[in-house]
Design a protein that fits this description.
By secondary structure, the chain is of the alpha+beta class. The chain has 3 domains: about 70 residues, RNA polymerase II/Efflux pump adaptor protein, barrel-sandwich hybrid domain (OB fold (Dihydrolipoamide Acetyltransferase, E2P)), CATH 2.40.50; about 120 residues, Beta Barrel (OB fold (Dihydrolipoamide Acetyltransferase, E2P)); about 220 residues, Chloramphenicol acetyltransferase-like domain (Chloramphenicol Acetyltransferase). Helix content is about 30%, strand content about 30%. Strands 17, 20, 23, 24, 25, 26 and 27 form a 7-stranded mixed β-sheet that branches. Strands 1-8-6-3 form a 4-stranded antiparallel β-sheet, with no helix packed on it. The protein has a 4-stranded antiparallel β-sheet with strand order 5-4-2-7, with helices on one face. Strand 18 and strand 19 form a beta hairpin. It is globular and about 90 Å long. It starts with a strand and ends with a helix. About 10% of the residues have low confidence.
């Protein structure tokens, strides 16, 4: 009996997902628990595994958006579902007289890493591989590793490029030839031939991590000397690579060949490169445009004299770190101040649900973090009940997990208000976009010494501009401005945070 596979529930408030990748094609044979596709919501990416073994029948295409509970595919069970090798492969194996088959499994590549992705095969099915020769690159969420052959023989690939496997999963097998197994000396004699082939492939070839770095720098792999096995370009090579200008002679030759009198002698590097948007980046883009189109978004500004907080941090930061084993940053002050201001102006902490407004009596503060795969907003739960120490530790914990791509769905859902700090990148002023379904977001910026008037005298103070973007459908101008004024009072006199006044 065929099995219908539907979109599972992947988190509170998530009503639809997008099919970002199919690992299998229509009509392919799938094993039970084998990953067949990736689904993406506005918060994270999920893998879907086959619930039974059989033949796959796709019902939605790549890039389609499907509601929770919607039909993804159908798996038809078969009495003989094992994949049959093509006749030419069978004949090749018989002619080679394989003595035994060595199965290769995904090795353990590090603590807490439970799965890897096949990023690149350097050999193809049917190729002769040599013991310890690099045959593939596998990638985890932390690093890239090289997979080497565990025997000399004919390679059969069982997991294609892009496939995600758990540690210990079957990745390929090698049919060991009779003559190789019985005569290891002969194998050593012929090894240079295969080493040469591997080196020719590796020369100028960048690992996935290195390729990404070179693409960001706009540097061609041809211009980089590799230091890895077979002169492969490693991540370190890419990090150390610098954009080289062409020799004037070559530029001159190029100029003379174009016969264009308007062309300058040295135009620099005018190369371009394309990079496919990640599923997460596409989803974030879609969500941000949706927020701009569906909310009456407005931004109001104020400025904060950061001198009192800076004096307090300077006085107590060492003793704070010794006692709590965490640094005393600005985020705890802003989070505490926001929680007090949100209690005073509850509309800023509310959200619209259809024809109703939901007011939250708690402050679940989302913090925007720039992660490798895109912007994420993990949530500090019940921030109004936490101490400075607890907030700082939670910020460090969530930011670390975000940068290591280890955040869970519950850690990224349910926020009532968001704080984003563009100041760490040098931003002076911005109009942050609301993190739906929330109704407001606070933007922090860099701290600059500016002249201000105090007691009729011009003095220099460390000033930060703050911005509050809000949904005008639920928050009026009086509430937004009053929220920022209250925030300014609390930050410029931190003792108010302790006294609650």
């Amino acid at each position: 009996m065929s099995l219908e596979m539907k979109v599972p529930s992947v988190g509170e408030s998530i009503s639809e997902v997008t099919v970002s990748q199919w690992m299998k094609n229509d009509g392919d044979h799938v094993e039970m628990d084998e990953v067949i596709c990736e689904l993406e919501s506005d918060k994270a990416t999920f893998e879907v595994s086959a619930e039974i073994e059989g033949i796959l029948n796709l019902k939605v295409g790549l890039g389609d958006t499907v509601d929770i509970g919607g039909l993804l595919c159908v798996i038809e069970p078969a009495s003989k579902t094992k994949e049959v090798l093509p006749p030419e492969v069978k004949l090749e194996k018989v002619s080679l007289g394989a003595a035994k088959t060595v199965q290769m499994h995904v090795p353990t590549v590090g603590e807490s890493i439970n799965e890897v992705t096949i990023s690149n095969w350097t050999k193809s099915t049917g190729d002769l591989v040599v013991l310890d020769e690099v045959i593939a690159e596998i990638e985890s969420d932390k690093a890239t590793f090289e997979l080497t052959a565990e025997a000399t023989g004919i390679l059969e690939i069982l997991a294609a490029d892009g496939t995600t496997l758990e540690i210990g999963g079957l990745i390929c097998q090698i049919a060991v030839k009779d003559e190789v197994a019985s005569n290891p000396v002969e194998s050593k004699t012929s090894e240079p031939e295969y080493t040469t082939v591997s080196k020719e492939y590796a020369v100028g070839h960048a690992s996935p991590a290195a390729a990404k770095i070179l693409a960001e720098k706009g540097i061609s792999a041809v211009a980089v000397q590799g230091s890895g096995v077979g002169e492969r370009i490693t991540k370190e090579d890419a990090l150390n690579a610098k954009l080289q200008k062409e020799e004037p002679s070559s530029k001159g030759t190029e100029k003379s060949s174009t016969n264009d009198p308007k062309q300058h002698e040295d135009q620099g590097d005018r190369s371009e490169h394309r990079q496919k948007m990640s599923p997460l980046r596409k989803t974030v883009s879609k969500r941000l445009v949706s927020v701009k189109n569906e909310t009456a978004m407005l931004t109001t500004f104020n400025e904060v004299n950061m001198q009192p907080i800076m004096n307090l941090r300077k006085k107590y930061k060492e003793s704070f770190k010794v006692k709590y084993e965490v640094g005393l940053g600005f985020m705890s002050f802003f989070t505490k101040a926001c929680c007090v201001a949100l209690k005073d102006w509850p509309a800023v902490n509310a959200k619209i649900d259809g024809d109703e407004i939901i007011y939250s009596n708690f402050c679940d503060v989302s913090i925007a973090v720039s992660a490798p795969k895109g912007l994420v907003v993990p949530v500090i739960r019940n921030a109004e009940t936490l101490s400075f120490e607890e907030i700082e530790k939670e910020v460090v914990r969530l930011a670390t997990k975000a940068r290591e791509n280890k955040l869970s769905i519950p850690e990224m859902t349910g926020g009532t208000f968001t704080i984003t700090n563009g100041g760490i990148f040098g931003s002076m002023l911005s109009t942050p976009i609301i993190n739906a379904p929330q109704s407001a977001i606070l933007g922090m910026h860099n701290i600059v010494q500016r002249p201000v008037v105090e007691d009729d005298e011009i003095v220099v103070r460390p000033i930060m501009y703050v911005a509050l973007s809000y949904d005008h459908r639920i928050i009026d101008g009086r509430e937004s401005v009053s929220f920022l004024v209250r925030l300014k009072e609390l930050l410029e006199d931190p003792s108010r945070l302790l006294l609650g006044v």
